[in-house]
């Protein structure tokens, strides 16, 4: 984009802001229409996905303003706990620093400074894209008023007995250093080794030194198959399916763990997969979700051989301290030396990885906070029909997930986030036991800090020895409240009365469970209403390989690059071609450049049409439109275009709306009508002007800068945004 054009766009944007054209008015007599911007994560530059979302939001916003609605497009940014902390950690490592070297207070100072630096790039991209949001209402999910709202959310759940804390199996990311939800994981196909390991059946005379014991004739064995021999150290049982043809005779007996000589029970369980391995399953309750459930039902002890950093514990003896992949190889060697490893096979295995850092996720037992989800999901299932989904199949996708929902682990072992507002008496409750009868308090700030002496003392010791829970909330615990906290909840504001539920929300499909489902449940819980009337899922833009755009792989395309090369409006129009509801698209920098170049040429075509119509206007032009057949034809085509484009926008099919407008303006108006009009220019002038002005209005939601620039040529000082939407 040429510098003078960039300067023009900046001036146009400042003009819009100065005129207050982005502002919503809760006291307006116009009907309200509200759109909620999905808050991008506070971790770096805005990418194509963000640009797609914001371009769609802005097109709907500008259309509704022209249709005479009081429109609120509310912007905001998410603090993105795990991702933000991971990004900052990498920066600190380059300085030889870490969060633990800095300490919590110093680290938080650096975090807030980093937040300010990142935010600048966000806001610049938003304004360059022409996003007409009400910036006076912008929200950050970690600002004080949101913190108070999140406290109110937690306090309410606590009072309703929907919260509990305890040691349970969770999905743990060793690199991020925290528990994550199952829906925050991806799965990667890997070629792994399947080890077939035999466990000796305990004889009447136990072996005192099993590790050095040499197998003898007559010994009996039960064989299991596993991809994780390093976890055998933590085995506490073996399960077989009922009536196993080979091993059912061992049910009720004991086996001897081949790596440590521990005696473990053998039992039947219907959850054992007959088709996997040998039909016998080693049970490691501390390191597998299914094993955890089976172990709980059979009262098996829970042992931990892998710690939260992804290394082996002292339970692994001489393998302690090794990384998991190293320990796997060493454990296999031990099994082979003892004669316990029968054979190996190759296995294509689906392995869970953290969606943020791509580290292999470990199932571990950790003490976390949980929210009971069944009552929230039940209400959501009863009200989900009140939302219009685009595409419609997403209603069933969300319904299926809600029907199978499990309790939500809401705590994270991080520092960046809303700290859990629970205080424990370090003297009477050093173990941080949780319960309404325990020595703990749910409080937004330290108990007794701003109260008279004697208030908020520990009920047991009568003193103040308060220490706060170290963990923070899962980011989605606050982001799930986004539809109501952005409008001032828990206060009863006129904004929440007027603009809630939101008329339009959109997102990419990948956070449908993390964010959309939770917004539905939490809005129904706290406002007894669905959060939005229309929920739009746009497709994902992917590289030609079908994977994901990645900065590290060097295949990422950034909106700033396209804007610099081809201009803002050309970039927006390019994005609309990929905006079909729910449809993923494969593209590349080259393909996007080609499309953007075409739309840059379309902008130039529009300027040439305006120059011909306005600047080259003949002096003795007619003042009224004629009944010439060419004039009638173009007006009929214009009416068809108005009707069809409006219908497409109402259905949020912006890709079809822009296609319709492009075809009409370039081919019907320019190529046919304008060419024909040259032979009867004076008579055709009123029709030329009417069709041009109407076309600019129809195009404005998609190409705001070009249309505003051309509108100002004949309407100086007046914005096209304030014009009424065309009707037939």
TrEMBL record:
Belongs to the class-I aminoacyl-tRNA synthetase family. Residues 631-726 form the Methionyl/Valyl/Leucyl/Isoleucyl-tRNA synthetase anticodon-binding domain. NCBIfam families: PRK05729.1, valS. One of its GO terms (biological process) is valyl-tRNA aminoacylation. Pfam families: Anticodon_1, tRNA-synt_1. InterPro entries: aa-tRNA-synth_I_CS, aa-tRNA-synth_Ia, Anticodon_Ia_Val, M/V/L/I-tRNA-synth_anticd-bd, Rossmann-like_a/b/a_fold, tRNAsynth_Ia_anticodon-bd, Val/Leu/Ile-tRNA-synth_edit, Valyl-tRNA_ligase. The keyword Cytoplasm applies. It catalyses: tRNA(Val) + L-valine + ATP = L-valyl-tRNA(Val) + AMP + diphosphate. Its EC number is 6.1.1.9. The keyword ATP-binding applies. CDD domains: Anticodon_Ia_Val. This is Valine--tRNA ligase. Keywords: Aminoacyl-tRNA synthetase, ATP-binding, Cytoplasm, Ligase, Nucleotide-binding, Protein biosynthesis. GO terms for cellular component: cytosol. It is an enzyme of class 6 (ligase). Residues 12-586 form the Aminoacyl-tRNA synthetase class Ia domain. One of its GO terms (molecular function) is ATP binding.
């Amino acid at each position: 984009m040429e510098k003078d054009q960039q300067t023009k766009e900046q001036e146009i944007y400042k003009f819009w802001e100065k005129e207050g054209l982005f502002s919503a008015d809760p006291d307006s007599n116009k009907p309200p229409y509200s759109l909620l911007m999905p808050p991008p994560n506070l971790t770096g530059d805005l990418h194509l996905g963000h640009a797609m979302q914001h371009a769609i939001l802005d097109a709907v916003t500008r259309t509704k303003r022209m249709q005479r609605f009081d429109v609120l497009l509310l912007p905001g940014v998410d603090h993105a706990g795990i991702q933000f902390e991971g990004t900052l950690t990498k920066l600190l490592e380059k300085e030889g620093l870490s969060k633990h070297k800095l300490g919590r207070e110093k680290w938080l100072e650096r975090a807030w400074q980093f937040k300010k630096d990142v935010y600048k790039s966000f806001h610049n991209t938003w304004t360059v894209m022409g996003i007409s949001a009400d910036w006076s209402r912008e929200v950050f999910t970690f600002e004080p008023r949101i913190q108070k709202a999140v406290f109110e959310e937690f306090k309410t759940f606590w009072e309703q007995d929907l919260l509990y804390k305890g040691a349970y199996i969770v999905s743990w990311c060793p690199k991020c250093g925290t528990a994550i939800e199952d829906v925050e994981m991806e799965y990667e196909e890997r070629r792994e080794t399947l080890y077939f390991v035999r466990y000796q059946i305990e004889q009447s005379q136990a072996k005192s030194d099993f590790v050095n014991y040499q197998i003898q004739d007559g010994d009996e064995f039960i064989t299991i198959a596993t991809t994780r021999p390093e976890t055998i150290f933590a085995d506490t049982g073996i399960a077989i399916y009922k009536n196993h043809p080979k091993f059912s005779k061992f049910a009720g007996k004991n086996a001897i763990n081949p790596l440590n000589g521990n005696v473990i029970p053998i039992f039947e369980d219907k959850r054992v997969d007959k088709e996997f391995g040998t039909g016998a399953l080693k049970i490691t309750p501390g390191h597998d979700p299914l094993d955890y459930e089976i172990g709980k039902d059979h009262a098996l002890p829970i042992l931990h051989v892998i710690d939260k950093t992804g290394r082996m514990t002292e339970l692994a003896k001489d393998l302690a301290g090794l990384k998991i992949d190293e320990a796997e190889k060493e454990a296999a060697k031990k099994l082979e030396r003892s004669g316990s490893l029968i054979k190996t096979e190759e296995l294509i295995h689906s392995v869970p990885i953290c969606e943020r850092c791509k580290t292999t996720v470990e199932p571990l037992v950790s003490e976390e906070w949980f929210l009971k989800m069944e009552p929230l999901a039940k209400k959501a299932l009863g009200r989900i029909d009140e939302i219009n989904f685009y595409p419609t199949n997403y209603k069933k996708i969300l319904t299926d997930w809600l029907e199978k929902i499990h309790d939500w682990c809401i705590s994270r072992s991080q520092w960046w986030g809303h700290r859990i507002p629970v205080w424990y008496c370090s003297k009477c409750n050093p173990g941080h036991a949780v319960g309404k009868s325990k020595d703990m308090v749910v409080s937004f700030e330290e108990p007794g800090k701003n109260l008279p002496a004697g208030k908020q003392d520990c009920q047991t010791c009568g003193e103040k020895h308060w220490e706060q829970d170290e963990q923070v909330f899962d980011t989605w615990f606050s982001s799930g409240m986004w539809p109501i906290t952005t409008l001032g909840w828990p206060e009863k504001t006129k904004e929440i009365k007027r603009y809630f539920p939101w008329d339009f929300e959109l997102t990419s499909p990948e956070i449908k469970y993390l964010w959309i489902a939770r917004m539905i449940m939490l809005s129904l819980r706290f406002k007894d209403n669905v959060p939005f009337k229309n929920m739009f899922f746009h497709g994902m833009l992917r590289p030609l390989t079908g994977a994901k755009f990645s900065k590290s792989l060097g295949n990422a395309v950034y909106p700033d690059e396209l804007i610099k090369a081809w201009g803002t409006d050309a970039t927006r129009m390019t994005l609309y071609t990929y905006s079909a509801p729910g449809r993923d698209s494969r593209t590349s920098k080259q393909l996007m450049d080609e499309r953007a170049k075409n739309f840059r040429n379309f902008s130039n075509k529009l300027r040439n049409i305006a120059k011909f119509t306005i600047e080259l206007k003949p002096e003795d032009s007619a003042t009224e439109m004629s009944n010439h057949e060419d004039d009638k034809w173009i007006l009929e085509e214009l009416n068809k275009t108005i009707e069809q484009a409006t219908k497409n926008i109402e259905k949020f099919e912006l890709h079809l709306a822009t296609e319709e407008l492009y075809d009409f303006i370039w081919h019907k108006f320019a190529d046919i009508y304008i060419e024909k009009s040259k032979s009867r220019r004076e008579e055709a002038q009123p029709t030329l002007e009417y069709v041009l002005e109407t076309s600019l209005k129809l195009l404005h939601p998609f190409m705001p800068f070009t249309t505003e620039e051309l509108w100002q040529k004949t309407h100086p000082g007046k914005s096209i945004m304030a014009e009424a939407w065309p009707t037939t």
